């Protein structure tokens, strides 16, 4: 589950970047239509439509950000949990390595003791 979520991250990031890019372009288009030269007259309906369009874009952007925030919080929690599991796994692997080394050492000791026992049994009395 965690790996699947991490694999989805690039697609979410691309979607987010595309949304921000479109929002930026829409805002630029809305503001560039506003007359800003001296003596210019403003059509109140056009101005209202441009501002409404900008507000709609910002509201959509706000919804997108809220949606992404929820997903990011979920991913952050999963990544945090994955980090804890990875740290525990590392500790266990280190412990396993130590136990394997100890087992090999004990095997050598056992072999040595068996050999010594065989030699002691073969000694004349």
UniProtKB/TrEMBL annotation:
One GO location term (cellular component): nuclear microtubule
Top-level taxon of origin: Eukaryota
GO biological process: spindle assembly
GO molecular-function terms, A-Z: microtubule binding
Short name of any one Pfam family annotated for the protein: QWRF
Protein family (similarity comment): Belongs to the QWRF family.
UniProt-recorded name of the protein: Uncharacterized protein
Gene source species: Aegilops tauschii subsp. strangulata (Goatgrass)
Upper classification of the organism: Eukaryota, Viridiplantae, Streptophyta, Embryophyta, Tracheophyta
């Amino acid at each position: 589950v965690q790996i699947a979520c991490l694999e989805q991250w690039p697609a979410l990031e691309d979607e987010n970047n595309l949304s921000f890019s479109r929002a930026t372009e829409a805002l630029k288009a809305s503001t560039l239509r506003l007359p800003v030269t001296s003596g210019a007259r403003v059509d109140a309906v056009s101005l209202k439509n441009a501002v409404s369009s900008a507000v709609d874009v910002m509201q959509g952007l706000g919804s997108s950000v809220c949606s992404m925030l929820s997903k990011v919080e979920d991913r952050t929690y999963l990544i945090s949990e994955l980090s804890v599991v990875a740290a525990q796994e590392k500790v266990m692997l280190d412990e396993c390595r130590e136990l394997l080394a100890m087992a090999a050492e004990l095997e050598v000791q056992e072999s040595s003791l068996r050999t010594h026992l065989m030699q002691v049994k073969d000694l004349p009395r």
